[in-house]
Amino acid sequence: MKVLQINTVFRNGGSTGRIAYDLMQIQKQEGIEAYAAYGYETGAPHTDNTICLQSTLRRKINILRTRLFDHHGFYNEAETRKLIRWMDEIHPDIIHLHNIHNHYVNVKMLFEYIKMHDIPVVWTLHDCWSFTGHCAYFDFADCDKWKLGCHDCPSLKDYPPTWFFDRTRRNYKDKKIVFTGVKNLTLVTPSEWLAHLTRESFLKDYPVEVINNGVDTNVFKPTVSDIKKKLGIEGKKVILSVVNMWGGRKGSEYLVKLASLLSDDEVIVVVGMQPSQMKYLVPEKMIGIQRTNSVQELAMFYSAADVFVIPTLEDNFPTTNIESLACGTPVVTFNTGGSVESVLDAGINITSSDVCETKYGIIVPQGDVYSLRKALKEVILKGKAYYQNNCVEKVRLSYNKNEQYKRYINLYNMVVKK
Fold first, then answer.
1. Closest to 309 in 3D by CA, of 285, 336, 273, 333
2. Contacts of 181 (CB under 8 A, 6+ apart)
3. Dmax (CA) of the chain
4. Cα separation of 62 and 69, whole Å?
5. Sheet arrangement for strand 50-52
6. In angstroms, how far is CA 274 from the centroid of its own chain?
7. What is the per-residue DSSP string for 134-176?
8. Which of 26, 125, 235, 396 holds its CA 20 to 30 A away from the CA of 98?
């Protein structure tokens, strides 16, 4: 069996890149002939089985086209012709799509090829972009136009941002035409939250499977760490946050608000900062660390922390949550999207106004910084040891990448038989 994964990035560049890379290793172990096409360079190793579709210059040009004309996903003709030539060479039995937005592929050309050749497709949705007229998330804007047809978009400045035109009505119609009508397509979501939304969208006629993200428990585990010593914060309680963007839907403003409520023996460490973002941090209360591509170093940060905080306002199934739990560090999160699912036991539901403490951390109402502060204080008071074994065991049983991604292998076999 030949499986081709298509994603924005590969190995590095964010959680989806790591997921695609890890899944490729599992595919190889299971005897699958594995291939990967990705949008742009993030330091991934070049092999005969991988292809990068565009240069940095071309990416900038295609970003500009989205900024000017707001028809995201329908540019990148040259890059998609390159991808199609490669697919003609390798003849994949299954195409596994991940993020097909972010300025690197023309979705109309890609899906026309899939329909013409009747290729089975597994599509992992990492956000909501596939069934909206513009945005990747809509909770922050409290918008439900995606259910019937987008127009007058309140989120034009959100990813993928555009400057002038609102073409969300056209985008929605074009996507609906392009993405429907595939004979053999199975959708996968990492969270029950996104599965529920997908079943309400124009993709509702496709089967939807939930396969949670997984982590490497040989790397993400309680690890001896000298991070506190290196940062000069020995003796302080460390509240860790890991970001890939600052502001907006990630709730970064709440980290700054939290800083003003900390006691003298507490500090917030934020990993993933850009140099230009350091100015937002509160001196002496916050420490910014630039992005690291070393998962071993990341595990050391999680292990050094007393608690992990994720004040996200829109999210699917943050891999950072399960990385933290795997390292024995409890999680405090807003009640947002799929972020709560890794902190709850299966089958437990909570309302938006609930404060819910579990064996793995605490969930608080979205946007309530004082409840967030109280929850962090409670976790620190109980001590990390109170949660650690339960956190590690939860990941071992539910989010081990080898077990999670083998579910994709089973899905491939099912899809090919169908």
1. 333
2. 115
3. 64
4. 11
5. 50-52, 33-38, 2-7, 94-97, 121-124, 185-189, 208-210
6. 19
7. S-S--TTTT--GGGT---S-TTTTSSS--SS---HHHHHHHHH
8. 396
pTM of the predicted protein model: 0.92
What span, in angstroms and rounded, lies between the C-alpha atoms of 380 and 374? Answer: 10
* Model confidence at 44: pLDDT above 70: no
Residue given tokens 């089958």 in the structure block: 347
Quick: pLDDT tens for 142-184. 899 999 999 999 999 888 899 988 999 999 999 999 999 999 9
Whether the Cβ atoms of residue 191 and residue 316 lie closer than 8 Å to each other: yes
Query: Which are the contacts of 278, defined by CB distance < 8 A and separation ≥ 6?
Result: 288
Structure tokens at 90: 């390798």
* Token representation of residue 78: 């040259």
CA–CA distances in Å: residue 187 to residues 29, 96, 117: 24, 10, 19
Give pLDDT tens digits for 314-327. 999 999 999 999 99
Strand 33-38 and strand 2-7: pairing? parallel
Does residue 20 contact residue 54 with C-beta atoms inside 8 Å?
no
